C-alpha cells in the first residue's frame, strides 16, 4: 500500500500534522533529515494510523501514490530551499510540494514559478493553531494552483478545524496567496495581542486591579462579543501564580516581547502596498520598544504625570469602557488587515474571497473568535466592502463604543500609560471619517520646497506655485 501524502520535517509541527492525517485514516509517509525523529514518531504514535517510515529521499518518494503530495515542514528560508532542491529532482510532472511553514510569500512566489517550469505544483500554505492545532485541527490557508487543490483540498479540509460543520480550510488563491494571508493573520494576531495587553495595563494602572482580578474581567469578556482564543488564554496566563515565588506569573516574566518576524513582514509589505496597517505596525513597534533594554534603562527617570488611579463613577465604568475600546480597536485592526489582503490580491493578481478567509479563521487558528462570524457575514453580504468599519453591525458597534474609546485613550494619556494600539486605532478611525485632512498642507509644503506639485479641489490637473516669486503665481505643472 502506498501513502496518499508524505510529511518531511518531523519536528513538533510536522509530527503533529502527520499524526492528524493518520488519525483521519490517511496513509502517511514519513521522512526527516535525522532518522531518529522518524523512528521516534513510529514508536510513540505508530498505533494512531498508517505510517510508512522512509529513511532516504528516494524511499520517501517511492512510498507515495501519484500525484505525489509532499508536505515540507522545516524552517523558513534556506532550509526550505534545501529540502525542495533535494526532492524536486525525484518528482514527476503533476506532483505537489507543499510548504506548510511560515514562509515569506515572495519566496513562495519565486519557488512556485521555478517549480511550475518543471511541471511541479508548489503550494505555499499557511497553517495556524500552533502544536495543538496541527494535531487536533488547524486553520489551513493553501495557495498554489487550482489543480493542486483538487487532490490536496480534500485531505486538508479533512484534518482542519470545523466550525458549524464547515472546514477551516479553503483554496486562498494562486502562488503566494496562502502565505500572504497567513502573514496577515499573524499581523492581526500581533495587533490583537497588543490590544489585550494594553487593556490589562490600563485596568491595572487606572484601577489598581491585581492580575487575578483582571483575569476575571477577561473571563467575563470572553462570554460576550470578545469571545476568542486569545482572550481565553490571557485569562489563564493572568490567573497563573509562579510556583517559585508565589507572585503573579505575569510579574516574574521579563517584559521584553520577542518576535520571529511574520508581524514585521506584514508591516513591511503593507508599506510597499501603501496600506495603513497602523494597528499592526504599532504592535510590532511596541514589541521592539519593549525589547530596547538600553534605551529603556536610559529613559527610566524621564518625568511623567502622577498616576492617581481613577475613583468614583469613572472607576466604576472603566472596565466596560475598556471593553468597548478594545472591541472598537479590534474592528480597526481587522479592517486594516483585510484591506491589506485586498491590496495584496489586487497587486499580485489573486482573486481572494475575504468572506471565505474570515470564515476559515473562525476555528483552529490563533485569532479564532466569535467576532469572525460577523466579519465573514459582512464580506459575504458585500464582497467589495471598502472597510469593515462601514459595514452595518460594526459601524453601529463603533458608534456605541466611541465615547468610551475616546475616554479610555484620554485616561491613558492623562495617567501616562502607553496605549499605542488603542490610540492609533482611534486616530485611524478619525482620519478615515474626516471631511478634510491636513494632507492638503503637506502637499503645500512639498510644493514649496521641492516643486512637487499639487492637485486642486476645483480643477483637473497638477499645479505648481512659484513660491520664490513675490506674487506667487500658479501655473499648471
Ligand atoms: C499560528 C502562529 C504561529 C507562531 C507565531 C509566533 O498561527 O499558529 O501565528 O505561526 O506561533 O507566528 O509569532 P512570533 O514568534 O513572531 O510572536
TrEMBL record:
GO BP annotation list: D-gluconate metabolic process; pentose-phosphate shunt
Pathway(s) this gene product operates in, as recorded in its UniProt entry: Carbohydrate degradation; pentose phosphate pathway; D-ribulose 5-phosphate from D-glucose 6-phosphate (oxidative stage): step 3/3
Keyword Phosphoprotein: no
Superkingdom per UniProt: Bacteria
6-phosphogluconate dehydrogenase C-terminal domain sequence ranges: 178-468
Pfam families: 6PGD, NAD_binding_2
Presence of the UniProt keyword Glycosyltransferase in the record: no
MF terms in GO: NADP binding; phosphogluconate dehydrogenase (decarboxylating) activity
Positions annotated to bind NADP(+): 9-14, 32-34, 74-76, 102
Listed InterPro entries: 6-PGluconate_DH-like_C_sf, 6PGD_dom2, 6PGDH_C, 6PGDH_Gnd/GntZ, 6PGDH_NADP-bd, 6PGdom_BS, NAD(P)-bd_dom_sf, Pgluconate_DH
Active site per UniProt: 182, 189
Catalytic activity: 6-phospho-D-gluconate + NADP(+) = D-ribulose 5-phosphate + CO2 + NADPH
TM stretches of this protein: none
Residues noted as binding substrate in the record, renumbered to the chain: 102, 128-130, 185-186, 190, 260, 287, 446, 452
EC number(s) recorded for this UniProt protein: 1.1.1.44
Record key words, sorted: Gluconate utilization, NADP, Oxidoreductase, Pentose shunt
Record's subunit section: Homodimer.
Family statement: Belongs to the 6-phosphogluconate dehydrogenase family.
Role description: Catalyzes the oxidative decarboxylation of 6-phosphogluconate to ribulose 5-phosphate and CO(2), with concomitant reduction of NADP to NADPH.
Name this protein carries in UniProt: 6-phosphogluconate dehydrogenase, decarboxylating
Amino acid at each position: 500500500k502506498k501513502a496518499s501524502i508524505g510529511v518531511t520535517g518531523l519536528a513538533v509541527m510536522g509530527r503533529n500534522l502527520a499524526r492528524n492525517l493518520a488519525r483521519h485514516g490517511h496513509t502517511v509517509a514519513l521522512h526527516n533529515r535525522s532518522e531518529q525523529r522518524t523512528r521516534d514518531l513510529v514508536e510513540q504514535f505508530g498505533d494512531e494510523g498508517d505510517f510508512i517510515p522512509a529513511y532516504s529521499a528516494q524511499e520517501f518518494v517511492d512510498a507515495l501514490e501519484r500525484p505525489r503530495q509532499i508536505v515540507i515542514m522545516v524552517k523558513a528560508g534556506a532550509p526550505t530551499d534545501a529540502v525542495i532542491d533535494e526532492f524536486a529532482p525525484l518528482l514527476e510532472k503533476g506532483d505537489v510540494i507543499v510548504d506548510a511553514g511560515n514562509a515569506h510569500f515572495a519566496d513562495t512566489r519565486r519557488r512556485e514559478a521555478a517549480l511550475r517550469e518543471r511541471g511541479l505544483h508548489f503550494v505555499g500554505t499557511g497553517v495556524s493553531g500552533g502544536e495543538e492545532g496541527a494535531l487536533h485541527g488547524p486553520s489551513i490557508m493553501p495557495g498554489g494552483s487550482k489543480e493542486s487543490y483538487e487532490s490536496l483540498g480534500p485531505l486538508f479540509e479533512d484534518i482542519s478545524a470545523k466550525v458549524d460543520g464547515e472546514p477551516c480550510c479553503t483554496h486562498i488563491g494562486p502562488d503566494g496567496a496562502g502565505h500572504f494571508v497567513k502573514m496577515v493573520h499573524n499581523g492581526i494576531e500581533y495587533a490583537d495581542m497588543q490590544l489585550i495587553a494594553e487593556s490589562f495595563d490600563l485596568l491595572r494602572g487606572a484601577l489598581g486591579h491585581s492580575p487575578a482580578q483582571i483575569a476575571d474581567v477577561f473571563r467575563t469578556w470572553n462570554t460576550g462579543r470578545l469571545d476568542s482564543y486569545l482572550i481565553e488564554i490571557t485569562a489563564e496566563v493572568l490567573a497563573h501564580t509562579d510556583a517559585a515565588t508565589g507572585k503573579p506569573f505575569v510579574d516574574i516574566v521579563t517584559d521584553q516581547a520577542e518576535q520571529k518576524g511574520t508581524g514585521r513582514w506584514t508591516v513591511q509589505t503593507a508599506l510597499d502596498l501603501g496600506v495603513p496597517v497602523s494597528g499592526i505596525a504599532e504592535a510590532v513597534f511596541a514589541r521592539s520598544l519593549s525589547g530596547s533594554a538600553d534605551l529603556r534603562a536610559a529613559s527610566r527617570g524621564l518625568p511623567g504625570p502622577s498616576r492617581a488611579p481613577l475613583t468614583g463613577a469613572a472607576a466604576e465604568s472603566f472596565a466596560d469602557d475598556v471593553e468597548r475600546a478594545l472591541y472598537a480597536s479590534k474592528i480597526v485592526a481587522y479592517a486594516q488587515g483585510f484591506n491589506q489582503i485586498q491590496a495584496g490580491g489586487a497587486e499580485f493578481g489573486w482573486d481572494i474571497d475575504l468572506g471565505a478567509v474570515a470564515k476559515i479563521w473562525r476555528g483552529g487558528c490563533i485569532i479564532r473568535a466569535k467576532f469572525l462570524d460577523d466579519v465573514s457575514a459582512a464580506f459575504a453580504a458585500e464582497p467589495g466592502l471598502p472597510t469593515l468599519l462601514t459595514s452595518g453591525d460594526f459601524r453601529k458597534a463603533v458608534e456605541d463604543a466611541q465615547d468610551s474609546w475616546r475616554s479610555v485613550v484620554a485616561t491613558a494619556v492623562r495617567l501616562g500609560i502607553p496605549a499605542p494600539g488603542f490610540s492609533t486605532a482611534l486616530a485611524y478611525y478619525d482620519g478615515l471619517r474626516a471631511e478634510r485632512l491636513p494632507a492638503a498642507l503637506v502637499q503645500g509644503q512639498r510644493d514649496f520646497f521641492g516643486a512637487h506639485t499639487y492637485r486642486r479641489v476645483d480643477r483637473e490637473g497638477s499645479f505648481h506655485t512659484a513660491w520664490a516669486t513675490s506674487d506667487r503665481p500658479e501655473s499648471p505643472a
